[in-house]
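S., here's the first fold you wanted:
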Amino acid sequence: MSSIKQHLSNVVAAAINQATGLEDSNANVITASKPEFGDYQANGVMAIAKQQKANPRELAGRVIEHIDCEGDALIDKIEIAGPGFINIHLSPSALLDAANAAISDPELLVAKTMSPEKIVVDYSSPNLAKEMHVGHLRGTIIGDSLVRILERLGHQVVRQNHVGDWGTQFGMLIAYMQELSADESALNAGLSDLEDFYRAAKDRFDSDPAFADTARKCVVKLQSGDPEFLAAWERFIDESLKHCEALYDKLGVSLSRDDLDAESRYNDDLPRVIAELEAKNLLTESEGARCVFLDEFKGKEGDPLPLIVEKSDGGFLYSTTDLAAVRLRVKDKVDRSLYVVDARQSLHFQQVFAVARAAGFADNGISLEHIAYGTMMGKDGRPFKTRSGDIVKLIDLLDEGVRRAHAIVSEKNPALSEEERQLVAQRVGIAAVKYADLSKNRTSDYVFDWSTMLSFEGNTAPYLLYAYARIRSILRKAPDNATINHIVQIGAEEERALMLKTLQLPEVLEAVARDCYPNQLCNYLYELSGLFMRFYEACPILKADEETMNSRLALCNLTAETLHTGLGLLGIETLEQM
């Protein structure tokens, strides 16, 4: 089953093929900017006419001769506009049938892809030596929204949390654990705040040469597989994962321990990666380190930029682990591998992907994609931190969001019980933080501003949650004998615009799945809510005659389901009342 846009694209592309003989042509179907231009426009004829040195309007005429409007239930009529645009008007009866089908079975609201793929999404990726901070927010929630959308479209999605659980810092942490192990309560208290625990261990490492020497010996013991040190390492990892899981639960993120793709998993494979790079004559020694130099990567002065895969002391790096992960994903017949990682790592991933292909680790059967995102900034234009300049813990940020939301809901709706206020505050506070991030173009930096994200006006989570709750309130007020499961008429322009918008959810999700910009879904939901408000103001619902009331209630029902589905795909829980 295809979306409306995909169906029209296929129809127009086939007609272009028949009119021109071109096998591959871009119909360039978009939603119409104004009602007088129809519901959709096909603009691809313009570019094709230029290529073929043909008159675009004449070519458009030949194209529409090959479109069978009578035989296509979705298309009502087609018109040529301007120099060669093709305006497409959709059949009201076909729209009604699609809308009513979605009301009867909400699963039909989102068309499943006809070409399902196996897609790995690598996201969140905390360092298990520390607690998660605000820098982990974007990668975690962008990745989570992508996996939800891809799964809903019918793809086989593999969540992978590529956590840092290995390295020299763990020797330092194990040594500090051993110091505290004589007093179990002191050790438990220390592990309850990983950031303080790491800082204390680092202070000892930097200030006490004897401790630093012990820490280095711990690394050797750990990497040699000593059971005592492995047990200490596993305990620390377990405590770290508990901190992550508490945050994932609070955020409503769908990662679990089953999704871990830890660095330690690849330890045994890293020497083989080096050996294969050497066999392909890709390795060069530079200042004792082993590197790969590719011609396409140059510095500002034209100097070649290396991808270091083995340090001078024999240690491996993120690049080595990432290459091993690519090899494994190719072996597992993955179609797309998405890396939801900070934009500052762009060069790293460009080099890793290029080396993977040069070494034959990745073939043309896999798409390697860096889903880059910008930085959360404070109002001072610098990376968001506490007033004292410390990195903000993610748990503290979320708790602050809930606290602020509680104050707002208590002011706006004091009639709610304290239990109800807590529920609303929890969902609104978390949703506000997530939506403020997801609604921005992911490649851009953005300024973190509580007053904006908790506002009930504009493109915010509170506005959308309120819009949903308002529709649910209308449905609750309907007479007991009302029916809300069948739209029978779309007489008013506002009714038609709203219904068509609900049916466009699949094509928005297709765009997000293809380009990985969740803000496209946010914009759609905001526009949908705006169209509902226009419909609500222009079209009486509960005061209309019975048939009209029931039909409009069904449209309300469809709109609520669309909002609920869309917000759910962003990882945001709705509320029945606020």
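And the second, which I think is the more interesting of the pair:
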Amino acid sequence: MTISVWRYSHLTLAVSSFIFIALAAITGIVLAVEPINNKLPAYKADGFNQITLAQALPAINKLYTNITEISVDANQFVIVKGTDSAGKNVEVYVHPITGAALCKVSKQSNFFQWVTALHRSLFLHEAGRFFVGLTSLLLLLIALSGSILVIKRQRGFKYFFAKIIKDHSAQYFHVLLGRWSLVPIIIISLSGVYLSLVKFGVFAAQKITHKIDFNKLDNGAKKSLKDFAIFNSTPLADVQTIEYPFSDDPEDYYTLKLKDKELVVDQFSGNILSNSAYPTTALINNLSLDVHTGRKCILWAIVLGIASINILYFIYSGFVITLKRRSGIVKNKFNANNSQYIILVGSENGSTFGFANAIYQQLVASGKKVFITELNNYQPFAQAEHLLVLTATYGLGEAPTNASKFATLLYKYHQKQNIQFAVLGFGSRVYPEYCKYAYDAHALLAAQAWAAPMLEVHLVNDKSPDQFKIWLDAWTEKAGLPAIDLPAYLHLQPKGLQSFKVVSKTTSSHADEPFLITLKPIGKATFTSGDLLAIYPAKDYRERLYSIGKIGKHIQLSVKQLPNGLGSKFLYQLSNNNTLEARVISNTHFHVPSAATTVVMIANGTGIAPFLGMIDAHTKHNAYHLYFGCRTQQTYAMYKTAINAAIDSKQLAQIQVAYSREGKQQYVTNLLAADADFIANTLDSKGVLMLCGSLAMQQSVIEILATICAAHTNHALQYYQAQGQILTDCY
């Protein structure tokens, strides 16, 4: 099933039922307090699970002359119904060992009775119970469809609980809380559906009947209760109710209702006269009540209360997400048939529309006829001369929800005139499928006879206005249009950044020499080697990303100073104890795979940073090998101490270094070629190769790896890439 079906199903279910779900959640929060309050009094005896009926009943019988029933409630409080020594009717909590009265049993308060009635039936009797049951079913479907959307967002089930890329707070917490609340919400909804079906007789309750042969009663002397074998072997914790005989008539008996069965016990001999197990429906009914109400466990009641609070938040955040997704859509001034410029947008969460709108507004202001719409609304455009596609990528390189039909529509509707097109991709380099759908859309258009590309595919990482402006200037120049200015809102620094304090920083003797800077998070921060640190040196939209090496609890970056480099200059000017604002971006596809037998790390320049952290955290369950390319021995010297220590401690099996500016003047590819057999064996034995450094290095390494695979293995390089054995994080 396509993502759009799941997306719209999830939204439709939520919109159609949110009032009933909100009422159920609010009353559920209140009712979750009741089992907590009920457990607060200390009416449960110490060692309750070890107390048997034979120990408890004699003491209780001494204090109450005419007992009709003894019960054990969900809190394991013992309740006696009968009369006391003064002949007064009583219903009290008692101590199971001494029989002493602890407190009278009070009825449920009027407030909780009112809330319970609202929760169960909305004060509409049978019709209300039907709507409540239907609401539970809809909540279950919402939870399941939401789970599928999370799986698709996180690129597979195994990444279900992986770190979430934060788009905006409503969506971030909608997914985050949804993952942790999933199981409680499914249990709440499923048990609610079942209890409703029981109420309407779908699962008929089977009554227990006992067949007793009174001719076989033991007419011997009456035994003491403490001598009854069944009472000695039955703990109070297993009891629901004990119904006492009405008289001393031999045909009157004890009815012992346990958790899984019901027994009839001779009041004279203690022999079991009848033994009937509860039907499965009765057991499921009790279990459903327990898990739906939390009556037996205070911790579960708290979980149910928190889940109900989260349900209210999901209603709020769901509407925020929907409104945000729809807010970017423009009301067109011109229609599709008379517009020269067509802008098609593919966006999962609506953010791409902000960039598309910037183009739309400027073109319309300059007197152009422009039509903007989603990719799924592609159709014949009678007067179109230019077609712009601005698209994000979803999940595993898939089309966004509003672009899922584009390929089909493109082959269905052929334009009658020649049209020039350009494609711009939006995404995050965190994902291995970075902007993949932009390339797919470009290829689809390029295959059409009427379509002519104006530019190659351009990409925008993490909504960078700079990268967007580069493409926009190139396109307007090709189209013969005046330059388009970007609106101010595209230039703002993101919110929610965290503070980091500089712990140490090395100095550089010349411009080509990198430097190391170590940062300590101020407050809680979750990161690991291979993640990315995003900084905003100009306190605006301009973002600079650096690969993280986790050394202890600190972040270590290896940075090369670039001429007029915004990020490197900013970091180099920092001193110890200075602070900066930044954010950690999870980069899960570049974490060390736990199952790898051997890990070969290939880096050049500052690309060594994450590998230093990985080596520092290595626990020796597999072998790490490092191939490193740098300019001179002086450059290598800043990493040498840490690397030698890792070799001495067996955290690193070997290091090979290539110097490009002295000695043999070779590159890391020369080292790999010389060790072709080892590289091939590593791949064949399920080992992993990790590349970090420049894109030029990556391209050269991929070429040499392809040659090694062709000559020394039974598979092409693409096979190992598909198996996840070649991991890259290059820039």
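Why I say that: The first strand starts at residue 64 and ends at 72. Residues 3-39+111-166+181-204+290-318 form one domain.

Talk tomorrow,
H.
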